[in-house]
Amino acid sequence: MPRRSDPVLTRHSLTFPLFAACLAALLPQAAASQVRIKDIAHFEGVRENQLIGYGLVVGLNGTGDSLKNSPFTRKSMEGMLGRLGVGNLSDEQIKSKNTAAVMVTANLGAFARRGSTLDVTVSSLGDATSLRGGTLLVTPLAGADGNIYAVGQGPVSVSGFSVRGQAASVTDGVPTVARIANGAIVEREVEFALNELDSVRLALRNPDFTTASRMAEAINQSPGNTRARVLDPGTVEIQGAGKSDIPQLLAGIENLTVTPDSAARVVIDAKTGTIVIGANVRIDEVAISQGGLTVMVREGAEVSQPEPVSVGGTIVVPTTEIDLVPRDSGFAVLQGDVSLQDLVDGLNAIGIGTRDTIAILQALKEAGALHADLEII
Length: 377
Fold this sequence. Notes:
Blueprint: E1 8-10, H1 16-26, E2 35-36, H2 37-40, E3 41-43, E4 49-58, H3 71-83, E5 99-108, E6 117-124, E7 135-142, E8 148-155, E9 161-164, E10 169-172, E11 177-186, E12 199-204, H4 209-221, E13 227-232, E14 235-239, H5 246-253, E15 257-258, E16 265-269, E17 274-277, E18 282-283, E19 286-304, E20 315-334, H6 340-349, H7 354-367, E21 370-371, E22 373-376
Parallel strand pairs: 16-22
Antiparallel strand pairs: 1-17, 2-15, 3-12, 4-5, 4-7, 5-6, 6-11, 7-8, 8-11, 9-10, 12-14, 13-14, 16-17, 18-21, 19-20
Helix pairs in contact: 1-6
């Protein structure tokens, strides 16, 4: 009888016997864990809003935009100085390299109130080499509807650095991207009357009919006059007892626990050799054989001496020997309705490594014996 098993993650640095040992340690945990609804779903309409703005960072130590290659920076400086009463400056009079044009982005929370602060990200738009030591000037931040919701300003914080000399340069991180903690103040609120809603909807982060049905059942069995129904695999609609009770209703619902379900899936990262196999993966009866060549390289050295009464000296000559050893690990037969543990035991019996397992899983999928979604990233 096949044994149940939990998902197991193997890393390319682990040997397959260690993989099997880790799997055996996880097998006793047969019961699926329960999670809170707030961890697998979110309330529809309760989300962040993206803001964007264009501004100037000043005070750079000669690492700003070159005005010749960044005409938009020059125009921005002229406009800013004009608004401050400094006008009629020619191109010859503006030669500063201490200013950089930047794009400023931020996320406005669903219930951010006027006067609250936001973290902002500042990214260079021109050919500035570093934003370190700069200060962002007042920058309006607008939403997708064109309205201004926040204003950003303040000294920027850069994690990377760039050092240049005449013959070499060293760059660590990305010095042209910076952040300002609490660098924007909310000036306009997003209108969202939560208490005026007749119903609310839960949106699952990973749509699944079974999980949605379990969520609706848990909500209907919870205390209170609430009714929930499944609209589709990713949406559960909830009818509350009254409009004034919506916030309290949501607070109770999001802490209910359910057991999420998911389709059987195998995820492979071919670059690192990482394999993640879900617990519900099943394989039909198959016979697996994996063979190839083992390449052995031996490095050595020989001493070469000149003939007697001749010109020259003793030298060391390196030598290299390469042997190709055929390897045939034979067949491993996996019986029908194979579980994750059976698969690992069978592959481990013929000495298959992680990278060879990737090829075998792909072949099983092509043969129609692997009953799971195979995703390669």
